[in-house]
């Protein structure tokens, strides 16, 4: 091939890579505008009349603003956790719900309630984070022992572990007469969010910054232990760091909001279909679309049977289950075409 042609191909590939990694593109700005509109709709959606009541302005800042902020932070946290887990496990069907991480967080909350009557939010968060980290590490230890690593085996292992932990939590709840705590945790909802009950969710911003700082190394870890080690990455230490960040994000959400299924599965898969698997360039997209997804589901949950409210976990679970099946069918179709 002539040198001029080779140089042209290289310049073209570099230009395409630059366009892919460029953040402030028209589609990304459009997504931000759509999510901002959803946030405004969330601020003014609800049964309480903030315009006609005397304390409407106070209620707006006590409940509506904290709820919308909590939606945005929670959506970013769960979508980001799913993206990191899918990358380091090399599996599209992995996220906190399909690995048992959320069930471990629920067990941590139950353990805190058993040890400390009427625990504070900090204690609940600590227990959820600690058990989330333990559960994620147990999942990865199981994964290392499994030689057959098909796309279905990995989430099946996680679902089985989650089912076992959920059974343990249910037994402990029945034995110690604390089933109400378990039931309240499984029904993830933002109805109780108000000033003084959501501020710890701001820690998620720190987690996002740390993940962005280690994005390149985490992308290398997604290539496998042997490749990452040959490229100079301390694979085991990086996996510990990733699991720790995931545990913090999931633990905070579990303690403040509750169980939010499939959010970490839907968003990263949608983004990866169009943008590939580069964590650094995909992370802003995943966070923003995660915000929009959960905000839209919460608006539906508040309006579908007004003046009553459906738990947002019900909407997420329904949508997530459909997307989960579609991903399975898509992977099956791609195998047939090979």
UniProtKB/TrEMBL annotation:
| Primary residence | membrane
Organism's domain of life?
Bacteria
Spans through the membrane: 28-48, 68-88, 100-116, 122-143, 150-168, 174-193, 200-218, 238-271, 283-305, 311-329
Location comes to:
Cell membrane
User: Which Gene3D superfamilies does this entry report, sorted A to Z?
Assistant: ABC transporter involved in vitamin B12 uptake, BtuC
Spell out the InterPro entries in the cross-references.
ABC_BtuC-like (IPR037294), ABC_transptr_permease_BtuC (IPR000522)
Topology in membrane: Multi-pass membrane protein
SUPFAM superfamilies associated with the record: ABC transporter involved in vitamin B12 uptake, BtuC
Asked if Transmembrane is a keyword of the record, the answer is yes
Q: Which UniProt keywords are listed?
A: Cell membrane, Membrane, Transmembrane, Transmembrane helix, Transport
Family under the similarity heading: Belongs to the binding-protein-dependent transport system permease family. FecCD subfamily.
Entry's PANTHER family?
Answer: FERRIC ENTEROBACTIN TRANSPORT SYSTEM PERMEASE PROTEIN (PTHR30472), PETROBACTIN IMPORT SYSTEM PERMEASE PROTEIN YCLN (PTHR30472:SF27)
Q: Please state what the protein is called.
A: ABC transporter permease
